[in-house]
Structure prediction request, 939 residues.
Amino acid sequence: MGSLKTFIKEVRSAKTLAEEKSIITKESAKIRTKLKDDHLSLEKRRKNIQKLLYLYILGEKTHFAQVECINLISSDDFQNKRLGYLAAVLLLDEQQEILTLLTNLLNNDLNHPNSYIVSMALSALGSLTSPELARDLYPDVEQIINRSTEPLLVKKALQCAARLVTRDAALLEIFYPYCKKVLDNHRLCTHGVLLGVLKLCQSIIEARNLYEFDNYLEILASLIDSMPEFFSLLQNLNSAVFNQEFDVNGTSDPFLQVELLRTLRMLFACAPEKTMQYVDKFGDLLTQLASIGDGSKNSAHAVAYECVRTIFELQLDQSLRVLGVNILGNFLSGKDSNTKYVALNTLSRVVPQEPRAVKKHRKFITKCLLDTDASIKVRSVELIFAILDETNVQELTNELISFLEISTEDDKDVVNYVVEHIMVVLESERYGEERWRLDMAIKVLELVGEYASYEKVNEVMIMINNARSIELKASLVLKILSTTIDAPADSKVSVENSGWKLVAIWCLGEYADLILGSSGLTEVKLTAWLANMNRMCYDEPRVTSFILSAALKLSCKIQSKSQIEDLRLLIAGHSKDTNLLLQTKSTQYGILFNQPTKSKKAILDAMPFFAKNVVEETASSAETRQPVKSPQAAKETNLLLDLFDTDPVPAAIPGGLGGQKPPLNSNGQKAAPHVPTDHEHVLQAADKIYDCNNLSVYGKVVFCAHQKAVIELNIQSKQKKIINLHTMAAVAKLQQLSMGTLSSGVIDPSGIAKQQLELTGSGKLKLRVKLSYTVDGAEVSEQFDHRFAESL
Amino acid sequence: MAIQYLICLNKQGIVRLARFFQPFLGDSKDGHATIAQIYKLVSSRDLKHQSNFVEFSESTKLIYKRYAGLYFVMGVDLRDEELIYLSHIHLFVEVLDAFFGNVCELDIVFNFYKAYMILDEMIIGGELQEASKDVLLERLTYLDRLS
Prediction:
């Protein structure tokens, strides 16, 4: 069994991971056996624990030695004790029950005549402070603070006391008098001791809500009495009398300065009235501190930053807040990423308090977009949107777009954030004229459309759709289509940019008539492009779905017979698509395609203006004169989304419940609504298969052969009007169900709604139907089973 | 408030020092899994162009700095001031340097218990207890002779 040094060398000399692992495992096993041996000499025990600690650093399991380190602590030998304490603080934590074994040992050592041993015990207690230890050992800690004349012990004891208070708030009553007492004893007050006093103050303030007795105000008052002392300490640290010992790059003890500021800040915050008399003094001091420091070193920044945090947390007066923002502005203008990071973090918190001052620094904020640190980029983007208003929207948008232009794959998150937020801005009429907003929105989409969510892409379409003048619309559409169709090689649009594709395809479908012929965009070109897209995007159902609609719409905007035939073929090509929705769409469009031109034109006209659903101003709200919500804040009816949505409730769920929404929301149905005319007549020869208070259901098997059956259900209301009707159905396991559209979600009294069901498979025709609807304002849900005579 | 842990790793991610001042909260009981994550995060960051701060979890951000081949990483509360903790790390490294005399990784490997001694004289329960290099070194030299 070699020494620690040999062991470390052995581990280091291992050539492979496996070899290293085997050395470690062997040694670990050896240590385990050795430690179990009761006759092992203390010397050997120590050696083993030393190795064990090395194993700890390497990440090995060491729990088996927890009791062993307590044994070492109990030894009278200084070396053993020292190692024992080190092992204890590394291997144990304050949640372990084994700590109770330490109570007596710590109690003895805290009262030991040897100050080195007392110091070790304090360090251990400071690290392993369980509430039990706090209650048992506080008298020993108190005694050290009270009696000791050694700053080295007092500073540790004060830090311990601060920890004890956090574990048991009742103890703050014991310790608070020592803040003042120690401060008054100038001989004792080294910087270390002062740090201890400040920590104790902070703990006492933080524990105030946990303290259960009613003399807290007195305690606080005693702390407030020390404030002038803190002020003068802070002032002295920054005076000409410079203590070389504590100099850190030209700043005098930044650690103590930061703690002083933090303590003062906490006192001001928790007793605003009692500390009122000091506010002006503190303000002056902060102004002074913030302007000192050469401003290029981390230590000076740390103090200045703590001043800024104090100013904003206490919401000090405006001149100080402006000063604070300017300090942060200076941080931003530097080269140091660290100060940029903290400045951006803080600025985004203080924008609401001091928007004007922050806006002044927008140059530096936008410059941070070019930083290489992603977290700085994210923060600067957040800040840009926080300060964006009518006066700077153009400048900031330009900066954001130049960022998007150079953004790379690594900036994905930032780009996402920009896209999501800038669209909201560009949608709003507040931010500049329509043409500019639209240009920018299209530019963003062109650059990074692959990152835009479908909702945002949709909003761009709505914006184009709602563009006021037809000339503007035409020029936008021309721009989009000529970039895409004419010069795909020059454009920066990436192949993955599906957002851009969607918009281009949509524009083609809606507005082909506006641009046909200009810039060489001929019918042939448009059709060929659409066909090409159809081939290229076969694995993108959403794009394909758009292509189908665009093809249908384009077909009545062009004259050439052969191009129209191409479009028909394009649509028909999806009639056997594996994607059921595309298949349905293709079939439905196929039918529409063959309608007479006149009715087709009416159905396929460009989309109307989308009125955004602004909540109507009612009389009462007019009286109270509440500001009307701006349009972009109001909820929109996303008509486009409905029309093009490719993921509604699946029409068929094998063997499960098939659901179908009323036609208003269903796929592609709006363009060709199927309006039943025979409302009043129940299907002839249908059986009444269900009856209840509100409605009757009639069912008939319309067709049944070749493993396929079609069932029609008629739902007839009795005396009341039924709204929000939804039907769901399930079939036997061997069958598959496809539900048709419910003819209407609303049934007038004695009116009828129709529902067609298509079953494939084999077995008896059994049906479980669930109906949910609203009648007289109450939601009702009914369920029944029915077995038809026929079987597949 | 307070430092949650201080970890010293080399460029390969091998731990050279690890000291936890607070028991782990929640389910992440395993300190070494956390250290592996920390290494992954910190080592992937650009030395020159990125800040020395990075958010690590919902309660913790890391303040770190690389000195030669060693990363010194501190976990602190999200609300804590970053810059001053960077000074903490720097102070610790300066004291290590002065104590060992031009410290290198091997000094810490073979004398890890001394490095812990230095840490324990500088920080107690996650709080800085002494900021003066002179005071620290005087004390440490004396403690060193006691063994």
User: Anything to note?
Assistant: The CA atoms of residues 434 and 786 of chain A lie 59 Å apart.
